[in-house]
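Just curious. Protein, please.
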Amino acid sequence: MRRVFRALALMLVVTLALLPFVGCGGDDDDDDAGGVAALTGTVPATGGEIAANGTLLINFDSGKNIEGGAVTVNGTPAALAGNQATWNAVGLTPGGSAALAIAWTNTDGTSGAASVTVTVKAVDNAPPTITGGTVKNGAKDVDPGPINEAGKIEITFSEAVLKGEAALGVDGGDALGTQTEWAADKLTISLNAGVALANETTYVITIKGVKDAAGNAMSDAKISFTTKGKE
């Protein structure tokens, strides 16, 4: 019986010693195979408008699966950063439509392609401006209740803008914990959990680094507002 137990123990030791090596070959094959990047959308999308000197934003689900980060539009390069490629329009004629052929090579060796048809507008030299939102600059007696309930402040621009920087804080004090989301012509500043606006307090929203698709920069802006007293 002792011999049987010794044999089983030896088999167990050998099995445990071999475990780290089992399946390694399969993992290496998966790594060598590479991956495929899928286009998830563009700004503007098909049917939209782009200025002759505008920008096309191309979004992928996984930019790391694009070989060498090389993306082209109509044969000219777009700059890839993370999961988004930016193409500065060249060769577009205002007053008509244009088919923009997007191409890339996946790390698994396959080719990726997509096409977007847009209307070409005249050259855009006008910077974006702030046109409205939840609060206006200089506003007094703002009720913080609805803002706290919604958990956000929204700001709208005169046109779609590229991502800039925005912060909300007490005038002359610290910034509040917030998250920002930039989508087309709207900026949403969401309050972090546990953060709320107080009564009888002046707040300042600072916005900077905002550009439109043509690269026209908006001047840095501040929106100051004061909440009302408790009732």
